[in-house]
Amino acid sequence: MKISLGPLQYFWRKSEVMDFYREAANWPVDVFYLGETVCSKRREMRLKDWLELGAILADQGREVVLSTLALVEAESELAALQRLVDNQRFAVEANDLSSVQLCRERGVPFVGGPTLNIYNHETLALLQRSGLTRLVLGVDQGAPQLEALQRQAQLAGHDFPELEIQGWGRLPLAYSARCFTARAHDVPKDDCGFCCLEYPDGLPVSTREGQPFLTLNGIQVQSTACGDLGPELNELAVLGVDIVRVAPQREGTGAVVQRFAEALSQGRTAPRHGDCNGYWHGGAGMAQISPTAISMQVPGA
């Protein structure tokens, strides 16, 4: 099983982004996803910058994938998306159907991102015919949904693509045309002052009782708790997961990657450090559920 570093979901200064990836280049990461997936107004890093960073990582033998916006709303965003798809060097993670269509028209194979919402084998087969070679499941799709999808595909005689699942990080729950962070500052989205820069790991939201509840990240809503499937690594392997994804955060990402890498290399599960895994077990996303005991070793370890 490989380890990927998912696309950066937060808004950081360009210097901070570059420092983060200089450090990440020394981690045992096999696949790097680069690019802006949340808000087109976040322009500290341009496509040129992502391509230059990708070239450095690719020259080190890493697989590089350029990730697209999850919500395309304007002609300018579509034009930027076209330039990304036409980069002619790196694969593309398509996070909405606009990017799928562009990849299909250009004959560019693509990774089906977690926001494509693929819940049945007919949709999966349709996207495979359009060029999908790898599927990244949405964070709400756990083992029961994956098993059902695999069973449906098998009964229909469809080959299942390479499979990737987020194993660590806050869970992206929803996207909106509105900007929640701007609303929290009582400013319009078009004149937000880039207030997301003030929250390098998102803006935490609590209930009236003061309990941590959600994290606001521009137009994206995330969980407050970090999902952690380290103790479920054996289950992931048994279900044919090829890549486990770690979502970048400001602090501690390297330690998470190292913990997963050591567990995989030794054929064991990783100790739990995150707070939730409910979706994977078919429960409430914020729940923490004891993993099913599976005695099998991780294949290939």
Structure description:
By secondary structure, the protein is α/β, with parallel strands linked by helices. The protein is 31% helix and 21% strand. The chain has one domain: Aldolase class I (TIM Barrel, Alpha-Beta Barrel), CATH 3.20.20.70. The protein has helices spanning 14-24, 47-59, 75-85, 97-106, 121-130, 143-155, 180-184, 233-238, 253-265; strands spanning 2-5, 31-34, 63-67, 91-94, 110-112, 132-136, 162-175, 203-206, 212-217, 220-228, 243-246. An eight-stranded parallel β-barrel has the order 1-2-3-4-5-6-7-11, surrounded by four helices. β6, α6 and β7 form a beta-alpha-beta unit.
List the helices and strands and how they pair.
Elements: E1 2-5, H1 14-24, E2 31-34, H2 47-59, E3 63-67, H3 75-85, E4 91-94, H4 97-106, E5 110-112, H5 121-130, E6 132-136, H6 143-155, E7 162-175, H7 180-184, E8 203-206, E9 212-217, E10 220-228, H8 233-238, E11 243-246, H9 253-265
Parallel strand pairs: 1-2, 1-11, 2-3, 3-4, 4-5, 5-6, 6-7, 7-11
Antiparallel strand pairs: 7-10, 8-9, 9-10
Helix pairs in contact: 3-4
Task: Describe the structure concisely for a colleague.
This protein is of the alpha/beta class and 301 residues long.
Features:
21% strand, alpha/beta, 301 residues, disordered C terminus, TIM Barrel, globular, 8-stranded parallel beta barrel, 11 strands
